[in-house]
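Teaching assistant here, posting this on the class forum so everyone can see the example we discussed in section. The complex has two components, and the goal was to see what a joint structure prediction looks like when all of them are supplied at once.
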Amino acid sequence: MLRKRSEKGNAYIEFVLVASLFFVPAILGMVTVGISVLRNFQVNQVTRDVGHMMAKGVDFSQQANQNLVVNDLANGLSLQSNSGNVTGSSSGNGVLILSVFQSLTASCGCLNAGHTVVVERIVIGNNTLYTTQFGSPNSINSSGVVTNYTTDPSAIADNLSSVITIAPGGLAYMTEGDFSFTDLGVVGFITHLGAFNRAIF
Amino acid sequence: MHKVNSPKKHSRGIAIVLTTLTLTVTLPLVGLGFDVGTLYLIRSKLQAASDSAALAGARALSLGANSAAQSSNAVTVAQNFFSGNFPTGYWRSTGANSSVVVDSTSTPNYRTVTVNATAQAPLYFLRVLNQQYSTINVVSQAGRRDVMMMLVLDRSNSMNQIVAGTGLSACSIMVTDAQAFLNFFAPGRDQIGLVVFGSSTYVFPPTTTFTTPDSNGNTLASLIASISCYGDTSTAAAMNAAYGQIQAINSTTRENVVVLMTDGLPTSITADFVADHLVRNNDGSCNPTGPAVFGGGTINGNMFPGGSLGLLVTSQPSILNPDTVILPTGQGCHFWAPLGSYVNMGAVSQDIASLPTADYWGNATQGPYTSESPAYGTQANLNDVNDAQGAVYSAINAVDNQANVIRTNSTLKPYIYTIGLSGDGAVDQYPDPLLLMKMANDPKLAGIAGAGQTFYNQQIGQPQGLNVNAPDATQLAMAFDTIARQISIRLSQ
């Protein structure tokens, strides 16, 4: 009876052992990846929505509109607001880079004629996380407008053609979002989770 | 022993059975989740790409010399934007493509771009149902409304100042930039007219064929090219002339827009001084007939360069001869002061008793702007006609009220966009940003404590335009571009 009693529940113990070694890590991993996927969706949605709004005239140099993004659209992504500027900050775990590009026609008679240039740029969030490869204008005013974009070579972003072709005289509104999920991960297995997305309108 | 051993034998392998049973439930669920997640991800990206393509296509309807070329450009641009937003092989999807259709006829003055996009999303676990992939289809539509736009350009004398580092006058820079501004609009669809103003106004009625020479061989660009700069700044008269054209066209299907570019404060008002019983005419010799311009003025005691003071009776000017005025001395009036001179200012009161309470078109000259703006503080003193500053204050009120009349037309709903060019003349002659923002009903008014906030609250519900400040004429092209982009955004939705 003693032996019989001691063997009772062995199967459950074995199952628990198997579960603890296999199922629990698997479930934790799935939960982590699941949350990460959900945040990826959110990052995609944020970049898309912000790009769409910018292309429809929303002025993100306004603090109230930046707050709308930070507090609502990007809620939970640890995107920090700028406190009244268009160049970003160094805090938070995410950044949105909003750019308007224009293909200057050859007839503009300006130094940058025939080039694609950045005409507006607004950075919301942590500007140390990501640097856009499309133009690096030297001077941007408080509304996010690049000053002297018709003549300043630093405003040229011809490499935009690697992702999209703009017709001469045409415009493109681009949002790039880069987010780091520092609170997610399974020690030793899943680290450095994050998401990047680009939307062009 | 049999009884003792039996449970042990039966228990053997139970964990494997339980695990297997659990896996038979969890694996399909995980698989379903993975496949559905992939489908959702691809569909979301496809929808974003399709939306982007439609909007970019609608925006591109302004590119091209005629409607056919514009439609063709819209299709090309839409497909470019679709490809740019939906990378080949995104999450192993295949067969992504978009078809773009432009409809130019179904709705008056409105063209639509419809994008129908498809992609094949791969299935992994659901292949057990004999499905290798799932076809995703999304549809997006955007449109572009045709615009009825009056371009109002200031050609006052101050525009003749040479801009440092360019060797060019602000006037000639404005000409180049205003011509380039026209490239943002669609010939054959958009209707564009021109008002050029100094002391008087020149009007070129709006036309959809603004790139085609008219019976006189003029295009809108060639007319702009022939602008030369003289005279005062009769902004209210110019805005009234632009509004008159919008009313004459009376289109409720187009987006009605006024774009004003000015380099200074309004300095003159137009009134019928005789009809308003404002002429003293002490000696019977000063009888300016019809609407006359009381021009010139000072701020802080400085007379505007080139500003004339007194009544100017305008004739119909041409684009080449902008300010054909009959000087009041020619009509027996005393008080015209030559350039830079104060010699006859004291004689103004010999001819007119006071400035009018309203200009020729009924715009009040005593408020509300000068009484609410901290920069001006008090209402214009209409009786102090010897102090031409009164003309400036009156002119500011008149143009503010004229802009209000335009914005509050609830049928035509015109939008006003303004460009203020600073850098010409002395600082106190620069355009007033607050006034231009108020005229445009720029949403940024809300962020300006005091008068800005007050103006914003007063004008809630009225069409919101935009004011752009160009610190000097070299920034004028960018100001025009910014306005053009904003109009393009408004037209393409």
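For the discussion questions: The mean pLDDT of chain A is 88. Helices of chain A lie at 2-7, 10-55, 63-73. Think about how each of these relates to the inputs above.
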